[in-house]
Structures are given as structure tokens and as C-alpha cells.
Write a structure and sequence with these properties.
By secondary structure, the protein is an alpha/beta fold. It has helices spanning about 40-50, 75-85, 90-105, 120-130, 170-175, 200-220; strands at about 5-10, 15-20, 30-35, 55-60, 110-115, 135-140, 155-160, 185. The protein has one domain (about 5-220): Alpha/Beta hydrolase fold, catalytic domain (Rossmann fold). The protein has six helices and eight strands.
Length: about 220
């Protein structure tokens, strides 16, 4: 349904991005942020699904600054590779590349942003440091470490109560710092929206997606 294009960040770095466009007139624009496994088949499928919901979607390949064309699966070796590459990225470079994707889609403050796992954290950081219309982050680790930062747009977070990587104490820290941010908890583990991961929980994912869709329909306009 979609295809890869090339973006250029403000520092001159060129990166790939997967673009998927709704048929007809899109209801708005979304930047979709990858897990630590690259813009792989699953992420491209999720982009296509959001496009089917009426959006123009672009997923920047944030790992291109370290290694280009990263697309790995969900076994232990892939997880270790993803963590290693993610460790080579600075927050500042990630923000530059997210901004390149948002700028490609249109005027500042008009696009929504959504992300999963590593992308959930990037979504939080982007909602605090860039201009978006709305943000929805799924099981983003390390958000609690950045709870002192403040979202500049309506922001929603989704977590699984059985997440082995994100303790509920972290979620409580975020909630305490940001009572204005809706934080939804699901009877699921980490990665509950990925049908290639063992913690996939379709009921939780469907509910989270509906809540995110409601957020975007309210705040993200063509």
C-alpha cells in the first residue's frame, strides 16, 4: 500500500521513511514511530492500517543515523541488535529526524504522532519538544525519566499492567507529574499491539487504537 521515500533533516542527514496515504481525502497527517526493530514489516503494516483509517502516515527510519535499512524480527538476537543501535542514537538526533517527518507532512502543529515501544518514548519526547496537534504513545520505556518535561499538545499514553520492562511505579510517576495526561492501563504485557510478539493482546490493542483514533479525530485536521 505504501512506499519508501527519502527525507532530509535540518542538519543535512538523509533518512528513509515509509509513507502510506489514505485513499480519497485524508482526515489528517500522522507521524508513526517505530519499535526498536526498525521500520520492519510490522511497522509498515501498522502504517497501512492507520492509512485505512483515513490518515496520511509517514514512519521515519530513525535507525538510519547508525545503520541503514534495519528491519529485524522479534527473537533475542534481533532484540539485542535493536538495543545496540538504539544506544547509538542521541535524543537530539532523534528529534531532528522526527521533525523532518512532521515538516514533510505540512505546517507545524497540524500532524499527530503515534509510536510504540521505543516509539512510545519518542512520541512523548516529541510531544514535549516539537509542535504536534496530538500524541499517542504505546508502552514507551524511559518516559518516567523525562516526566519533568511537559507536552505541548493533547497527549495520551497506553501501558500494559503486566509489562516486564515498565513497572507500574514508573507509570505512577508519570501520572503524578502529569494528572492532565490520560494514562490507560490494559490487562496485557509489553508490545500488546504487535501481532508478531508473544504479548500480543488484540482486545487491549483494539481499545487503545480506538482511544487514539478518537484523540486524533478531535485534534488532527486536514
Amino acid at each position: 500500500m505504501g512506499e519508501f521515500i527519502t527525507l532530509k533533516a535540518s542538519d543535512g542527514h538523509e533518512l528513509a521513511a515509509y509513507e502510506s496515504v489514505a485513499s480519497g481525502n485524508p482526515q489528517g497527517n500522522l507521524v508513526l514511530i517505530q519499535e526498536i526493530f526498525g521500520v520492519n514489516n510490522h511497522v509498515r503494516k501498522v502504517c497501512d492500517q492507520w492509512a485505512e483509517s483515513g490518515y496520511h502516515v509517514i514512519a521515519p527510519a530513525l535507525f538510519d543515523r547508525v545503520e541503514r535499512g534495519v528491519e529485524v524480527g522479534y527473537d533475542e538476537a534481533s532484540f539485542n541488535k535493536g538495543r545496540e543501535i538504539r544506544g547509538g542514537l542521541s535524543d537530539e538526533d532523534v528529534i531532528l529526524d522526527v521533525k523532518a517527518a512532521a515538516d514533510y507532512l505540512g505546517a507545524p502543529g497540524t500532524a499527530g504522532i503515534i509510536g510504540y515501544c521505543f516509539g512510545g518514548f519518542v512520541t512523548w519526547l516529541s510531544s514535549c519538544r516539537l509542535d504536534f496537534a496530538a500524541a499517542a504513545g504505546y508502552y514507551g520505556g524511559r518516559i518516567a525519566d523525562y516526566a519533568s518535561e511537559n507536552p505541548k499538545c493533547p497527549t495520551m499514553l497506553h501501558f500494559g499492567e503486566k509489562d516486564h520492562a515498565i513497572p507500574m511505579t514508573d507509570v505512577d510517576k508519570i501520572r503524578s507529574a502529569h494528572p492532565e495526561v490520560p494514562i490507560h492501563i490494559y490487562p496485557a504485557g509489553h508490545g500488546f499491539c504487535c501481532d508478531e510478539r508473544p504479548d500480543f493482546h488484540p482486545e487491549s490493542c483494539n481499545l487503545a487504537d480506538q482511544r487514539s483514533l478518537d484523540l486524533f479525530r478531535e485534534h488532527v485536521k486536514p
